[in-house]
Write a structure and sequence with these properties.
Shape: globular
Radius of gyration: 16 Å
Number of strands: 16
Number of helices: 5
Structural class: mainly beta
Helix content: 10-25%
């Protein structure tokens, strides 16, 4: 199984862009089926079934899967992504450069954008640099509204409902002290919040390495280890829950 994942990741790597620096640029839940996840790299994406532990949509161009992104900057690759919980199957948010777009992948329509990040998320002052680009985005726990945004070695927490800052921009190591001294403290390429952990458990990906972090105890639970092996060996965090996530 690990060989299959490694082969797919290698295929995606062949589509690297100058902007991309890790094995994957983004990771998010699929919008139409529980237990399915999209991995992004450069201008390509593949779909992974965590229940079967298998790639079910091969690495192919982003615009094949999200055709309305053709002709936009997003067609060249995304820097970060997130699938919302507040809809039964979710909407996708994609970020690239200083732009953001909200895409309903079930109905095949764009809901917001593409528009500058600063027009949608009102970052200002010391946080204004985040409007120039996002490396990763995920909620603190399995609900919508409040999100962590990552850029370089810094992070902030933002309430999208009120358009206000919850935690100011500061170093990753301040908010996740267990990552101090690791490559993850220097910046992350992608992140994911485990829906089974109400208090917050996160996967962080940097380069070809992944780590699972308990944000309550501030302890590394798994890793750092190569991402490809962890996807195949530890898919439980990506399995659909018995109960739907609540906003």
């Amino acid at each position: 199984m690990a060989d299959s994942i490694q082969s797919t990741l290698h295929h995606v790597l062949q589509g690297r862009t100058s902007r991309s620096r890790g094995v994957v640029d983004g990771l998010c839940r699929a919008a139409d089926q529980d237990g399915h996840y999209w991995f992004f790299r450069g201008d390509k994406a593949f779909r992974y079934d965590a229940v079967r532990g298998a790639v079910v949509e091969p690495a192919d161009l982003l615009v094949r899967y999200w055709p309305l992104l053709a002709g936009t900057e997003f067609a060249h690759g995304i820097d970060a992504c997130y699938t919302t919980y507040h809809q039964p199957h979710g909407y996708h948010w994609f970020f690239t450069g200083g732009l953001a777009v909200q895409y309903d992948s079930v109905r095949g329509v764009i809901l917001q954008g593409p528009a500058p990040i600063e027009e949608i998320f009102r970052f200002s002052g010391a946080e204004a640099e985040f409007a120039r680009g996002i490396d990763g985005v995920c909620p603190p726990g399995p609900s919508d509204g409040v999100f962590w945004f990552f850029r370089g070695d810094r992070a902030l927490q933002y309430d999208t409902r009120s358009g206000s800052l919850v935690q100011p921009a500061d170093s990753l190591a301040r908010y996740w002290p267990g990552l101090a001294g690791t490559v993850f403290a220097e910046g992350i390429d992608a992140c994911y919040t485990v829906s089974r952990a109400p208090g917050g458990r996160h996967w962080f990906i940097a380069g070809d390495q992944a780590v699972q972090y308990d944000s309550v105890r501030h302890a590394i639970l798994v890793g750092p280890e190569p991402l490809a092996g962890l996807i195949a060996a530890l898919p439980a965090d990506l399995h659909p829950d018995d109960q739907p996530d609540q906003p």
